[in-house]
Known about the structure:
- The protein has 222 residues and is mostly helical.
- The protein is built from 10 helices and 2 strands.
- The chain has helices at 2-27, 36-40, 58-67, 79-90, 101-110, 117-133, 136-146, 156-164, 173-181, 196-212; strands at residues 46-47, 153-154.
- Strands 1-2 form a two-stranded parallel ribbon.
- The protein is globular, with a radius of gyration of 18 Å.
- The model has no long low-confidence stretch (mean pLDDT 89).
Amino acid sequence: MRRSLRRWLLAAVAVAIGLPVLLILVYRVVPPPVTPLMLLRDAPIDRRWVPLEEIAPALPRAVIASEDNLFCRHGGIDWNSLSAAVEAYAAGERAGGGSTISMQTAKNLFLWPDRHPVRKVIEFPLTLLIEALWPKRRILEVYLNVVEWGDGVYGAEAAARHHFGKAARDLSTTEAARLAAVLPNPRNWSAGRPDAHVLRRTATIRRRVGQLGPLLDCAPAG
Length: 222
């Protein structure tokens, strides 16, 4: 009985470790068909995969400026930002700013959408695997194609058509910055009908893109 239980436990551990590694290898070349968030949301899914080359370079640059200034430099985890977020959480304050684009990609592909510490612990090894097995441009490509930009709206192409009535390749610098500006709260903020808060964030992101310079060297040239 003990041997049988041990075999089952070893098999479960092997699957828990091996399946994510296999999927990460597959997703390096194959578009992920669905994400947990898409399945959990009670809304029709509007999503149209496009390669990074068919997304206006202004969008990945704006997203880096908004979400993860050091994306092109770190190995998946920004330890300084993470430490600050952990200290804020321990003090009972709102903990933000610790999640990189790579971490968000891991979360979107494999995990559930909440801030529970257990989820963050699982997110770490998945993030490191993605960074080890994918180039930075693939991380950007997958993230921009699976991230939520409104109720049932996933990915840059669907977002561009939903909010601006155009293809992702035709986004202007301002439109790209607006899309980046709403990422922290895409179900309550609108890129197509921005309020004063979104407009302020848009201006900040556009300014930051101009300041980052070589820190954007892994993103498509604008």
